[in-house]
Amino acid sequence: MTETIAFASSRVVDAGNGRRVELRWAAISDSGRRREVNQDSLVVEFPILAVADGMGGYTAGEVASAAVTGRLEELASAASIDVSTEGIESALRLAVSDLAESLEDVSPGTGTTVTGLVFGLREGRPEWTVFNIGDSRVYRLDGDVLSQVTTDHSVVQELIAIGAITPDEADSHPHGNVITRAVGFSEDPVPDYLTVAIESDARWVICSDGLTKELTDYGIRHYLLLGTTPEEAARLLVDAAVENGGRDNISVIVLDVLELDDDTAPTRTNATTD
Questions:
Q1: How do strand 266-267 and strand 250-260 relate by DSSP bridges?
Q2: pLDDT tens-digit profile of 202-250?
Q3: Are strands 111-112 and 183-184 parallel, antiparallel or unpaired?
Q4: Residue 249 class from Cβ within 10 Å (0-12 exposed, 13-18 middle, 19+ buried)?
Q5: What is the value of pTM for the model shown?
Q6: In angstroms, rounded to a whole number, what is the distance separating the alpha carbons of residues 112 and 135?
Q7: CB burial of residue 128 (10 Å; 0-12, 13-18, 19+)
Q8: Which of these, 175, 116, 126, lies nearest to 13 by C-alpha position?
Q9: Of 48, 2, 96, which is closest to residue 206 (Cα–Cα)?
Q10: What are the residues whose beta carbons fall under 8 Å from the beta carbon of 68, sequence distance 6 or more?
Q11: Nearest-angstrom CA–CA distance, 252 and 263
């Protein structure tokens, strides 16, 4: 049995130099086929879009991810489009404090991943800030080229980095589920950051590892190219992951950046899928 949560919205923003773009996004979170509790949580409060994947026991992971997304939602609501990296880190520290004060059965190993995108302005120019702790991921599709933007904080990623295993071998590695960083009690929750210029006709994906356990990057690219809207692409991705096994909770946010022409109609060019 699976339980699904879905959400969609949009926003028109100034992209500088007289340009405007429309941001359209859709989010789906599904408990999958094997998990009774969905320990993933989502942030879909502009200017922050993020996914958190909790861990640490039957309900503790759910509490951890909800603590993080709750604090990020507060930050988004209060900050409009002025979210700093300091603000993100402060929100994550408050989430850890919330977790420590929780009445739920949390343990020293309780924690959560978090990854996402923040829309912001730097010297009047719009940009994305990508942030990440753990092995949830951000991807970007440009035309028909899919790129993984974030780097996993995981044992297998460290082994890949030193050449001990190949990416293909990582899929079946016995430590494939072990992450090396999380928002929790063991370390200060400071994410990795990357800033990226706002470019139209790009499609972004934010996802928990419940998606990437079931779909290869080629499969993710296939369904992103097949879906004409963020809602359709997100649904195709989640349905495929469930069909392929649904061993974990699956959460996906798909975001389109669409150029607005003089008549205010958004335009998007879809590449063809193989």
A1: antiparallel
A2: 999 999 999 999 999 999 999 999 999 999 999 999 999 999 999 999 9
A3: antiparallel
A4: buried
A5: 0.91
A6: 10
A7: buried
A8: 126
A9: 48
A10: 41, 52, 91, 92, 95, 112, 114, 183
A11: 31
